Amino acid sequence: MILTSQFSSLFSLSSIVKGSLPSDFDGNPQLEHPFKPCPDSPNCVIHSVEFNLDAKTLFSAASTVLEEMNPYKLNADSHSLQIEAVFRIPVFRFKDDLEIVIDSKPSGSIFHIRSASRVGHSDLGVNRRRVHRILNGIKNNL
Fold first, then answer.
1. Are 114 and 102 in contact (CB under 8 A)?
2. What is the pLDDT of residue 41?
3. Do 53 and 108 form a contact (C-beta atoms < 8 A)?
4. Residue 91, SS3 per DSSP
5. 45 domain residue, yes or no
6. In the structure, what pLDDT confidence band is assigned to residue 122 with cuts at 50, 70 and 90?
7. Which residue range(s) make up the domain with 24?
C-alpha cells in the first residue's frame, strides 16, 4: 500500500516536471505552421487548431487572452493577424517567446501557436501549460 502511494506520488511529480514537447497536443498533422521547428530539447510547443469562426474574431479573442496574462512584452498586429509576446518566468527571470499566426480560410480560420524557452534544456512544462491556458481562454471568451 505504501509502495503504491509512493509510486503514484512519483508519477504525479514526473508529469509536473516533464518538459514541453510539440507532441503534447493532439492536432491535425496536415496543418502546416509558419514557424521554425522546435529544438530537440523539451522546452518548446508548436500547435495548430482549426476554428469555425473568422480570423478577425479569433485574433481579437487571442489578443484579449494574452493581455489578461500580462506578458513582459506584447505586440499584436491586427493587419497581419500575428501576435508576438515575451513572458518572463517569475523566479529565475528567464524569457519565453510566444508567437501566434492566424490564417483565414473559407470555412473559418487556423490558429498557429509556438511557445518556446530561450535558454535551458527543459521548461518543466511551462510552455505546454501556457498554450493550454491560451486555448482555454480563447474558447471561454467566444
1. no
2. 87
3. yes
4. coil
5. yes
6. confident
7. 19-141
Q: Is 45 strand, coil or helix?
A: strand
- Gap between the Cα atoms of 102 and 87, Å rounded: 20
Half-sphere exposure of 1 (CA within 13 A, CB side): 0
Contact (Cβ atoms closer than 8 angstroms) between residue 124 and residue 107: no
Number of domains in the chain: 1
Rounded (5°) CA angle 61-99-45? 105
DSSP string, 39-108: PSSSBEEEEEEEESS-HHHHHHHHHHHHHHH--SEEEEETTTTEEEEEEE-TTT--EEEEEEEEEEETTE
Q: What percent of the chain has pLDDT over 90?
A: 61
- Residue bearing cell 493532439: 26
The upper half-sphere exposure of residue 121, i.e. CA atoms within 13 Å in the direction of its Cβ, equals 2
Using a pLDDT cut of 70, give the percent of the chain over it. Answer: 79
Mean pLDDT computed over 72-87: 98
Q: How many CA atoms lie within 13 A of 97 on its CB side?
A: 10
Domain CATH code at residue 88: 3.30.530.20
Cα 52 off chain centre by: 20
